[in-house]
Amino acid sequence: MSSFPSTMSHFEELPDEILLLICRYLSSVDVLFSFYGLNYRLSQTISGYCRHVVLAQVPFKRFSFICSSIFPKIGANIHSLTVSNEWTGVLSKVFLDQFGERMSLAFPRLKRLTLTAFISKSLTLFLDRLQNFTELFEITINGLFAKFEDTNEAENLLNQILSANNNRLNSIIFNASTTAFPVYTKNNDLVFENIEKLHIQLKSINDLHRLLTILPRLVCLHITVHRQSSDFDEKHQCITVPSLKQFHLQSFSNRWILKELTSILKRIPNVEELSIEIDSYADIGLVDGHQMFSLLSILPLKQFNYFLRLEDSSLVDHTNILSTWKEFNQEFVCLKNDDENSSILYSLPFRFPNLILQCSLAKNKVFSDSYAPQVRLLYLFGVSKHVSEIFSIIPKCHRLDRLCLQINENIPSSKYLVLFIN
Length: 422
Prior knowledge:
Number of domains: 2
CATH topology of the largest domain: Leucine-rich repeat, LRR (right-handed beta-alpha superhelix)
Mean pLDDT: 85
Structural class: alpha/beta
C-alpha cells in the first residue's frame, strides 16, 4: 500500500500575504478577537488592524472582551477609531463605562475618531469625555439623529462639537444623513478659530451666514442648505473669511436668487475651488453667464463647478444661453426637460458625486455621458411605475453606491425606493 505525503497545512504556516487576504473578509473587530495575542507572529501580521479599529456590528460579549482585554494592550497603537452607537446607545455606554475620564490615556496617539448612529443625548455624553487628546484633530459624525426641543439645545450641541477635545479639533465632518443644524449666535463674542475644515448640513441661508461669522479660520467648507430662509438677514455680510480656499454649496430645497448667492461669495474673497449645486425657480441671473462671470471674475478661482436646476425656464433663450458663458475657460451644457418648463445648466468636467435629478433628465444621453462616471449617490424623482426605465442609466454609473427612486404613480411623495449597488 503506497503512502502519499500529507498536503495539509496548519493555519499558522500560511504566508503573511494569505493571512492578510483572509482578514480582508473579516471586520477589524473579528480580526482582533480571533488572532491578536495567539502568538507574536500573528500579532505582528495583523498590526495594521491595531492602528485602525472599527467598533461596529459586533456582539455585546465580544465588544466587552475587546474593550477590557485587547484595547489595554493595543490602545497606544490606535490612530483611527470608529465607535458605533448600536443597540439604542448600549455600545457607546459600555465604551464610556470602560474608559471614561481616562480615554485620552487609553488612546494617546488617536488622530481620527468616527462616531456612528448617535443621537444628541449619547453624543453629548461622549463629547464630555473627549478631552486632552494631544493628537486628535479630526472627527467624523455619521448619522446623527437630533430633535432639538429649543434653540438653546441646538446651539449647545453644535458649540460642544466645535469645541470638543479642548478646542483642538480642526476638522469636523458630518455625513449626508445627519440632522440639519440651525446656527444661533446669541453670544456675539463666541468664535471657534480652531476649525479649518467642516462638512455640515444647515437649515437655512441665514444659518450659513451665522456659521461664517463664528468660524473665521475656515479653509475648506462643504455645506448643504435644506430650506429657504423666511427672512434674508444681511447684517453679517460685511465679515469676510479670507482663509477659505475650498467652498462647496449644495441646496436643492431652497429656490435661490442671485442676490443670495452674491451675499455668500462676497464673504469668501480668496476662494480657489468653488462648487455650486443649487435650485432656482426662475432667476435668470443664475443662468446668465455674463452676470456670473462679473461676480466670479474678482475671485482667484482655480476650479469652478456649477450645477443649476431651473424649475421655470420659460424666459430663458436656450438657443443663446451658452454663448453668455464663453468668458469662462471651460465648457457648459444647458438641457431642457421633456416638459419644456424646466432645465439644467452645468459645467464640464462634471465633479458632483451626489445628485438629485429628474428622471427624464437623467436619461438624456448628453447628460448621462457627463455625470455617469462621477456619481456615487443618485436620487431620481419623477420616476414612473415602469421602473425599468432606469436600467439604461445604471450601467453608465460605474461608481454608483446608492440609487434612490421617487415614484410618481399613485404613491405619496414621501415614499421612495432605495437601491444599494454592489
